[in-house]
């Protein structure tokens, strides 16, 4: 079985080649600012990135006609349930012409389809667990202001993958257990997985601050800023200039910890607050399952930090055992999702938005 996985990022395209479940080649192909600047929109980059992928495949001796599946990271689609979706004309049309959210992952399905077109009749193109996975219960959608609904937008691909991984390793069934998964990185997402569904999620704009995002802020003090800055500036502040970066001048958790160890007491208080807020987020989601949580999983880049993991264990291990699965696991998650579809272990769904 041969599978190609594609994960388009803002300045790179990650590509992995799997044969019979084993990774044969994985590469992050970087794109310079100058190369991308000539494209007005993300989808305009399709031919540029497709040609780079085809060149990679040629160099590595990967014949597209031998591929069983091409799996792309799912982009900014309407709310969908978790799992695999075949790339079809409606999905491509939505990503090219309808979605209002500019995100590099919008290219994932389009690129997968382009590679599939180079393949054989057996080759399928699919996405798996896009960022818009929404399995909220009705009560979870209530925001506190009529007309504004809480949305499920986050690191679904990585969070579901690590939850299923830990379930296997701990002798649990993902479909019958309850996990809280905290993805800790440039943006934080904390989710609860109950009986096979990601039933609630704290997104990066409403929960704990991260290395570079503000998280939820006190509205009374935030609203005056909105009159002093444009929407574009406010989005930049929330998404790129907030969180630890706003306090430390860097979003590098390792460098921040080095400064704390060297004696920076003010920064230690900020870092304690960062961990404190993550713990509060985990604790709040435990209430969704009435406290009956089987396992808490920490993932994302910051989960490599022994300082963060050990401090979180002190605060939330009374809820459930904690397992750290550091890093991002999108590529293996895409491959395994495609593998289950090819083997007939999981059904591929049809995407519709009309």
Automatic annotation (TrEMBL):
The keyword Kinase applies. Belongs to the acetokinase family. Its EC number is 2.7.2.7. This is Probable butyrate kinase. It comes from the Bacteria. It comes from Candidatus Enterococcus murrayae. It catalyses: butanoate + ATP = butanoyl phosphate + ADP. It holds the Pfam family Acetate_kinase. GO terms for molecular function: butyrate kinase activity. Keywords: ATP-binding, Cytoplasm, Kinase, Nucleotide-binding, Transferase. It is found in: Cytoplasm. CDD domains: ASKHA_NBD_BK. PROSITE patterns: ACETATE_KINASE_1. InterPro entries: Aliphatic_acid_kin_short-chain, Aliphatic_acid_kinase_CS, ATPase_NBD, Butyrate_kin. The lineage of its organism: Bacteria, Bacillati, Bacillota, Bacilli, Lactobacillales.
